[in-house]
Amino acid sequence: MWLSLDQQRDWASLVAVLMTLPGKLDTQLKQVGGINFYEYSVMVSLSEAPGRVSVMSDLAVEAKGSLSRLSHAVSRLETAGWVERRSCGGAGRRTEVLMTETGWQELQRIAPTHVEEVRRLVVDAMDAAQLEQLGSAARRIVAAADPALAETLASTTDPGRKSKE
């Protein structure tokens, strides 16, 4: 019924990561680029899309957020001039999001500092084996919590892919 002492310790450690890491990344990104971590994720997803353009519903999956959350983020990025929305032709109401040249330049300016922070907070805090174990554990947790997201991650994560982060 209750967690063992070891399980409580490990669970508390995970909760501490979940509560502190996003805020640290948000703070750093806001200082450097005026955007939060989710908006940064949207920009990275767009940068990796063909022509730096994506349909909103696809972008929501890529950026791991709801359409509502994405819509708010895109509105903020649009106000900054980093993205543009445009209607898709054809059946149905679909909207595409296009990264502007300004957005691309800003992402290139912000990304190196963000990568330094990710290295400082996560990558450099452990050795290669620990980092691999962390990744494996994270994938298992995602699979238990959101199987569809786990499948999406598995299909878009290629070990040979050159990462932009």
From TrEMBL:
Residues 11-143 form the HTH marR-type domain. GO terms for molecular function: DNA-binding transcription factor activity. This is HTH marR-type domain-containing protein. The lineage of its organism: Bacteria, Bacillati, Actinomycetota, Actinomycetes, Mycobacteriales.
